[in-house]
Amino acid sequence: MANTNTMVYFLVLLQISLSIVLTQSAPESSLVTQLPGFNGTLPSKHYAGYVTVDQNHGRNLFYYFVVSEGNPSKDPIVLWLNGGPGCSSFDGFVYEHGPFNFEKPKTKGTLPKLHLNPYSWSKVSNIIYLDSPAGVGFSYSKNKSDYKTGDLKTAVDSHTFLLEWFKLYPEFLPNPLFLAGESFAGIYVPTLAHQIVLGFKAGVKPELNFKGYLIGNGVTDDKFDGNAIVPFAHGMGLISDQIFEDTKSQCNGKYYGDANQNCERMRAKVNKVLKDLNVYDILEPCYHGSENQANTTSNHRLPLSFRKLGETDKPMPIRRRMFGRAWPLGQPVKSGNVPTWPELSSSAPCTDDEVATKWLNSKAVRKAIHTVECFVVKQKSVVSRWDLCTGNIKYNHDQGSMIKFHKELTSQGYRALIFSGDHDLCVPYTGSQAWTSSMGYKIVDEWRPWLVDGQVAGFTQGYEKNLTFTTIKGSGHTVPEYKPKESLYFYKRFLDGLPL
């Protein structure tokens, strides 16, 4: 009995020692000691700062690192990327799966209050929120030519970031590494994973312990994503049987790309029917007051991501989330041609960005998360204002369909979870379901419901080579925001290598 007690005591001391090592090894200058709006002790260690990915250009990527509230020395490291292109990953931190829930202030001029989030992904993992590419969020470059970027450059920079980040935090190098993101991160994640694998082949050091990736409502392939909208709208009861059948007939079942005049007419009819919906969650309201309507028509349209599905006389309202695809239906942009975004304001007709914008533009918050030092470089402001989604970058989608990357990665044994909120009209689950099926892998876990607390939370289908497709019932485009409890459940199951 004495020997057993001694062993238990030794193991406890070892765990405490590992925790102390983790705390002491990380760069103390990056430690976040307090956050305005939160009263109390942070639930785990937080770090924030910059990693230089190009010394010559002074290109710097900003990160916010949340140490796991569980077992930091063993829990996975997850790099989180929001989409756009052009949206800050603080979207995930503030609105989705960060350590806090943000309460909108009742008094004008005061900061939001922060409350602990019981479904934070930091409950079960270490997580890095990265603003990428340069020009997004707090990331910047001293050479403004860097704001003209694309898939390949973004992936290479993110890979460089990881290599340099692990030099700053070498104690986390043995931890399993996963990539995660949503919407246009459906491009960011597989292209970054591809760069990591290329780094292995080239003998790049340090060697990352990369295990897999998960993507929510992710842009993947223009034809699969574009052709998914009309069947989704019909299945959800948003367009009539007659409109669906007429569109299907005139377009020969193809709703994306070049079309004859009759097909264009039917696509315009579908757009007209759907135009007042909130495309990021068809169950959510979209506000159409006179002030918002004027704002919509004069200043806003949905940003063009990697293709353009046509135009109408009245642009759709913009949403503050990661813009996975252009709306509405229509013609694609030729490969590699993505127009510069229009200027975006902090407010949007469909949703409210006030909480994130107010908090992250507070001088006290900026000082707390170590962005103040970047305000003045050679007497010039470089990050004068944080915006959830920026119009400052010109992005070139230069890597085409992501299916080839998914095949490469899964065939080499990397785990992949493709998850979709089933009420998202922006990147409908029907497209993600179709392209995962098109991979040609054998089904090893046939379509079935998955449960949380005895209730159906969605549906899932497992394929060979560790590829899984999952829906989240009743969720919109940003799944952890709509279904936080269910999201933490499937997130932990995936990281643990367990089926739903």
TrEMBL record:
Single GO MF descriptor: acyltransferase activity, transferring groups other than amino-acyl groups
Family: Belongs to the peptidase S10 family.
Gene3D superfamilies: 3.40.50.12670, alpha/beta hydrolase
Keywords, sorted A to Z: Carboxypeptidase, Disulfide bond, Glycoprotein, Hydrolase, Protease, Signal
UniProt xrefs under SUPFAM superfamilies: alpha/beta-Hydrolases (SSF53474)
Signal sequence region: 1-25
One GO term (biological process): secondary metabolic process
Keyword hit for Disulfide bond: yes
A Pfam match: Peptidase_S10
Superkingdom in the source lineage: Eukaryota
Protein name: Uncharacterized protein
InterPro entries reported in the protein's UniProt record: AB_hydrolase_fold, Peptidase_S10, Ser_caboxypep_his_AS
Known function: Probable carboxypeptidase.
